[in-house]
Amino acid sequence: MKMQSLAKELSSTSYPGRGIVIGKTPDGKHAAIAYFIMGRSENSRNRIFVEEGEGIRTEAYDPSKLEDPSLIIYAPVRVLGNKTIVTNGDQTDTIYELMNKQFTFEQALRTREFEPDAPNYTPRISGILHIEAGNYNYAMSILKSNNGNPDACNRYTFAYEKPVAGEGHFIHTYMGDGNPLPSFEGEPTLIDIPNDMNEFADIVWNNLNEDNKVSLFVRYIDIETGKYETRIINKNI
Predict the structure, then answer these.
(1) pTM for the complete prediction?
(2) CA–CA distance, 46 with 60 (Å, rounded to integer)
(3) Residue 201 in 3-state DSSP?
(4) Which of 62-71's residues contact partners 24+ apart within 8 Å by CB, and which partners?
(5) What pLDDT, in 10s, does the model give residues 19-63?
(6) In what order do the strands lie in the sheet with 30-38?
(7) Which residue ranges form the domains of the chain, and what is each CATH number?
(8) Cα separations (Å) of 49 from 42, 119, 122, 233?
(9) For residue 68, what are the contacts with CB-CB under 8 A and spacing of at least 6?
(10) How many helices, marked H, and strands, marked E, lie in the chain?
(11) Helix (H, G, I), strand (E, B) or coil at 50
């Protein structure tokens, strides 16, 4: 697979929806994560990311304007020991709770499927990073309707052992704008990862559509120590 420019991938469409990027810095020292949300409706745009424990959750920026909290208020990031979970919905909690009971990432997601938001049937995208004693691997998943048919759920998991320095993978919910919104297709895109966390955050944020972007979470985790740095950007703050 040919490596693509993350900036180009993000700027090439007005509405990739929600997206997850996971990878490894060129110097090999850090695991990199980015998660962003976008919105077309006032309800979807009325959100911010806030820190919660070692993770984050979404909140209404203006609670008086919150119409329907389902599917938009959730914890995108949670940490379970040496595992960091990142998803685009409340399946974060499902993965956390079932992996805490010794289920695997895939087994936990077997209990879930795409979102019930007809006619889009938004895919559930998820990622998990495992860092222990200087070793690092990650996996990504997408649960999607069968070409818009809600009677069937297609499940795909992509596992990356011994990630290559400077490389990452990008998965998002939609291929672009539309009605209904077209679900992501294919493997996660191979993209470039910089050494600097703030540079990474700026690449993502500055290349998302100005009207539709809402919030961004970025974290770099030291692969040797497990210590991390986090940056959150909210359009509404």
Answers:
(1) 0.97
(2) 6
(3) helix
(4) 67/42, 67/43, 68/43, 71/115, 71/117, 71/122
(5) 999 999 999 999 999 999 999 999 999 999 999 999 999 999 999
(6) 189-192, 167-172, 19-24, 30-38, 213-222, 228-234
(7) 6-234 (3.60.20.20)
(8) 16, 27, 20, 8
(9) 43
(10) 5, 13
(11) strand
